[in-house]
């Protein structure tokens, strides 16, 4: 069985993401995070969410959990996420 690779998602606005982003991460604003349920994703895939302060990523985490995703993490702010990843 193949280990699922983590999916890192910036839930800030497109404008915030364009000003500063982490290479390779997806940008899905928190109010649109439900679109992940339309994709062919394993609901156990690790998903890490971050934003400017951690508030919007917390909201997006709750939304995804409500849609049945079981391995969702709030990575906090952009700076917190950057520190976690090195």
Describe the SSE topology.
Layout: E1 7-10, H1 14-19, E2 26-27, E3 47-51, H2 55-66, E4 72-77, H3 78-85
Q: Going across the major beta sheet, what is the strand order?
A: 2-1-3-4
Number of domains: 1
CATH architectural category: 3-Layer(aba) Sandwich
Give the distance, in angstroms, between the N- and C-terminal Cα atoms. 28 Å
Radius of gyration: 12 Å
Helix content: 25-40%
* Low-pLDDT regions: none
Oligomer: single chain
- The CATH topology comes to Oxidized Rhodanese, domain 1
Figure out the total of helices: 3
Highest CATH level, the class: Alpha Beta
- Helix/strand/pairing category: alpha/beta
Q: Could you tell me the strand content as a percent range?
A: 15-25%
- What kind of sheet is the major sheet? 4 strands, parallel
- Strand/helix succession: EHEEHEH
Query: Mean pLDDT score, rounded?
Result: 95
CATH homologous superfamily title: Rhodanese-like domain
The coarse silhouette is globular
Total DSSP E strands:
4
Main features:
Oxidized Rhodanese, domain 1; single chain; globular; 4-stranded parallel sheet; alpha/beta
Tell me briefly what this model is.
This protein has 86 residues and is of the alpha/beta class. It has three helices and four strands; from the N terminus they run E-H-E-E-H-E-H.
Structure description:
- There is one protein chain.
- This protein is of the alpha/beta class and 86 residues long.
- It has one domain (7-85): 3-Layer(aba) Sandwich (Oxidized Rhodanese, domain 1), CATH 3.40.250.
- The chain has helices spanning 14-19, 55-66, 78-85, and strands spanning 7-10, 26-27, 47-51, 72-77.
- The protein has a four-stranded parallel beta sheet, sandwiched between helices.
- Helix 2 links the parallel strand 3 (47-51) and strand 4.
